[in-house]
Amino acid sequence: MSGNDIWQELLSGNKRFAEGNPTHPNQSIARRQEMAKGQNPRAAVLACADSRVSPEIVFDQGLGDLFVVRVAGNVVNDPILGSLEYAVEHLGTRLIVVLGHQRCGAVAAACAGGEAPGHIGSLVQALAPAVDKISASEEGRVDWVAKENVRMMAKSLRSCGPILEKWVRQGKLEVAGAFYDLDTGAVEIVE
Ligand SMILES: [Zn+2]
């Protein structure tokens, strides 16, 4: 299956979820036993840690379907990059989805500016390039910044050598950007 075919399947799963008709696939005991022997997840998802944006639920998937990496603000750092590279290089993943979402707390903190306590500053710093791209006077700025951040992270993954860039260049890896609407449950394609 191509990355695009897998993406269409995930979007179908999201449609089931958003409409209240999830099928909860691949969650049986048989599936669990099959997956205990090994995994080859079709897609990797880089999502926000927000408790309302669980990729397996939002895309109506089950055990062994998604390789999920989560961090507030769905930003990329080296351990996350290494995780995604592992999924592509060793597990055969052909699609990476960067999933941002509506009213993201990390993005809101980055937009608010000022001093962030503890290590939260590192998130604010990682989100700063997207914040800088959207004018402070823009209505609904937090959501626009979240979408811009998805675009930027997807772009940086596509061009990240030596592993991801190589698979993209060979046409064996798709990197999609998407935005989850908390109100409707729908995932919108950002790029
Ligand atoms: Zn968030």
Structural class per helix/strand content? alpha/beta
State the CATH architecture: 3-Layer(aba) Sandwich
Q: What is the approximate shape?
A: globular
Runs in which pLDDT lies below 50 for 5 or more consecutive residues are: none
CATH class, named Alpha Beta
Q: Percentage of helical residues?
A: 40-55%
Order of strands in the sheet with most strands: 2-1-3-4-5
Give a list of the ligands.
Answer: zinc ion
Terminal CA distance: 20 Å
The name of the CATH superfamily reads Carbonic anhydrase
- CATH topology, what is it called? Beta-carbonic Anhydrase, Chain A
Rounded average pLDDT: 97
Order of helices and strands: HHEHEHEHHHHEE
Major beta sheet summary: 5 strands, mixed
**Alpha plus pi helix count:** 8
Counting structural domains, the number is 1
Number of strands: 5
What radius of gyration results from the CA coordinates?
Answer: 17 Å
Q: Proportion of β residues? A: 5-15%
